[in-house]
Amino acid sequence: MRIAQDIAETIIDPKAYAVGTPIDDAFRVLRKEAPFAIAEPTGVDPFWVVTKFDDIQLIERQNDLFHNGDRSAVLTTIEADKMVREMMGGSPHLVRSLVQMDNPDHMAYRRLTQAWFLPQNIKKLEPRIREIARSFLDRMAAFGTECDFARDVAFLYPLHVIMEILGVPESDEPKMLKLTQELFGAADPELSRSGDAAQGTEAGVNSIAETVGEFIEYFNAITEDRRANPRDDVSSVIANGQINGEPLDHFAAMSYYIIAATAGHDTTSNTTAEGLWALCNHQDELAKLKADPSLINGHIEESIRWTTAVKHFMRTATEDTEVAGQKVAKGDWLMLCYQSGNRDEDHFDDPFAYKVDRTPNKHVAFGYGAHVCLGQHLARMEMRILWEELLPRLESVELNGTPKRMESSFVCGPKSVPIRFKMN
Predict the structure, then answer these.
(1) Per-residue pLDDT of the chain (424 residues; tens, 9 = 90+)
(2) What's the rounded Cα separation, in Å, for the pair 306 and 379?
(3) Of the chain's two ends, which shows fewer C-beta atoms within 10 Å, N or C?
(4) What string of H, E and C letters represents the secondary structure of 149-163?
């Protein structure tokens, strides 16, 4: 079954994700009328659109049948794919991180840093993270009664945490934020390196390649330093790590740094900013949360579901198979639409309502199965600590203007959440 052309164009449109309503409406129609069907947007290879929660999980748990690395793991145009393959000697990837790997490489590389991000190991970081959270809330209070919560708090707090874990100096944090926004915001004229929305074009690919090159130049120097002077940080683990008794492949090592230095803060920032935005729009839920701090974890899970910062990943079928009663051919490309899965009416009661006490709240915002987000426990802990510290100090908060999301069909969250508040 083929998706209507206007919907096919909408689900790849960065502007639709920024506005929110067009994409929610498109996915609502698809879940009802064509929950697993083929899209053929202009300039893009045909792909299956997976909109239902259960189908997304089914594909995510079958890692041998649906690969991450055979084709681009993120939706791309025919023109951009051709350019990347020419640049990368046939590979469809400008970086080769855990996201672009399949087994056995995926598990071997994941195991390298996995221990760092296990709940029992990040627990020792809690006192320091709480100290960082308080410092950013003091900064917020110093603004008086108005600030941009996204730019002034939510972007900077998780950034500082992951850079300490990586061992990146605080003075380099603005550079890391800028490069992250260029990478994930390549389709947004306010954030892209080139200053225009050149997604999927030659200019867009060159822009992203330049950003990746700048990351690699930076982390080459970090690698040299950590090999000479290893420390107790994740950069030292990557710099000195071995896979099957051999040092990490250089490109894979650089990609490892990049995924840690970008996804390690950006999705948490997006969720934190969108979580406060949601509370401003749902003052009854804010009152419920302030009255009962035991609901903080519920609010965090709801903000993760509500935001769904990573909008999609792509998978490639490794052999002929069947999904949702449809025949999928070997080599077919599939788009896992996490935002749609997290609004699935068959899985969530009243999915378009924001409920800090939603139970159960089993979402797919962190993915599922072998590729589930490596940093999910750290992200939850950072958000829990921030809300534990903020809510007792926050007397009131409301929007002070119109929030804006970045234009992106891949990683998307607020770029501005202006608020008016009272803090004690």
Answers:
(1) 899 999 999 999 999 999 999 999 999 999 999 999 999 999 999 999 999 999 999 999 999 999 999 999 999 999 999 999 999 999 999 999 999 999 999 999 999 999 999 999 999 999 999 999 999 999 999 999 999 999 999 999 999 999 999 999 999 999 999 999 999 998 898 888 876 655 667 777 888 999 999 999 999 999 999 999 999 999 999 999 999 999 998 999 999 999 999 999 999 999 999 999 999 999 999 999 999 999 999 999 999 999 999 999 999 999 999 999 999 999 999 999 999 999 999 999 999 999 999 999 999 999 999 999 999 999 999 999 999 999 999 999 999 999 999 999 999 999 999 999 999 8
(2) 15
(3) C
(4) HHHHHHCHHHHHHHH
Closest CA to 66 of 311, 330, 337: 330
Query: For residue 136, what are the CA distances in angstroms to 151, 164, 260, 270, 404?
Result: 12, 15, 22, 16, 22
Contact call for residues 329 and 307 (beta carbons, < 8 A)? no
Q: CA–CA separation, 220 vs 251, rounded Å? A: 10
Looking up tokens 């899209």 gives 39
User: 146 with 418: CB under 8 angstroms?
Assistant: yes
Domains of the chain in sequence order = 5-423 (1.10.630.10)
How are beta strands 326-328 and 333-337 bridged, if at all? unpaired
